[in-house]
Amino acid sequence: METAKTNERPNVRRIISKLAKQHPDPFTELNFKTPFELLVATILSAQCTDKRVNVVTEKLFASYPSPQELSVALTDELENQIKSTGFFRSKARSLKKMATAIVEDHGGVIPNQMTELVTLPGVGRKTANVVLGHALGVPGLPVDRHVLRVANRLKIAKGTNPESIERQLCDALPKKNWTRASDILILHGRRICKPKPLCVQCVVASDCPTAHSVETTRDTGQRTARRA
User: Fold this and answer.
1) What CA–CA distance (Å, rounded) separates 93 from 79?
2) Could you point out which of 21, 27, 121, 193 has its C-alpha 20 to 30 Å from the C-alpha of 97?
3) Catalytic residues, which ones?
4) How many domains in the chain?
5) Tens digits of per-residue pLDDT, 131-148?
6) Per residue, what are the HEC states of 40-74?
């Protein structure tokens, strides 16, 4: 089990509070109106940008507005609609199986508990946390590659296992703040703390144990990272 000793980490609440000032209105960038739509969109977002998913789901949700319609979708038609999101065959299978399970096992209603959500085909903890926190009003802390990267660089959590990172961050934050904290870390990872970080633009650079790894380039006068 991967853990991080509390006394070796910066104050997580203070770090998140400072990052919130740089990203004041964090929320999932996936477009949705119902828990079902967010569940579908999150499954499609694997290895795909939210922007592309939003383009695809605009028509997809019109074709399949509920689990009932999606569960009986023709595979060829579904694959064609989601093709541009990548891995469209496996995603189509997951979507149809997920919708069928919701209809048959949950009366067509998206369950509001982690233990039930993760039993659905194509749904892991990250996807379940996204749906819980953003569509069902249940605190959840999704951990994607951005949260992993930012948390480890800031040393507010340690490890490569998403569930371990989730557990460490949840232990350090009030439950009511879990979803917002994840959104903030995701946006920071997308906009600032990228694989090649923009440390000069980061509001928590002075708190970051890895920020000392940047140097000023001669040709641009901007800071670039020597290591992630």
Assistant:
1) 9
2) 27
3) 126, 144
4) 3
5) 999 999 999 999 999 999
6) HHHHHCCCCCHHHHHHHHHHHHHHCCCHHHHHCCC
- Amino acid occupying residue 176: K
pLDDT tens figures, 156-209: 999 999 999 999 999 999 999 999 999 999 999 999 999 999 999 999 999 999
Q: Which amino acid is at 74?
A: L
Residue 161 and residue 187 in one domain: yes
Question: Are 202 and 183 in a shared domain?
Answer: no
Six token digits for residue 189: 């990872």
Q: What is the dihedral of CA 182, 59, 111, 121, to 10 degrees?
A: -90
The domain containing residue 163 runs over which residues? 6-20+143-196
Q: Residue 33: CB partners within 8 Å, gap ≥ 6?
A: 61
Tell me whether residue 25 is in a domain.
no
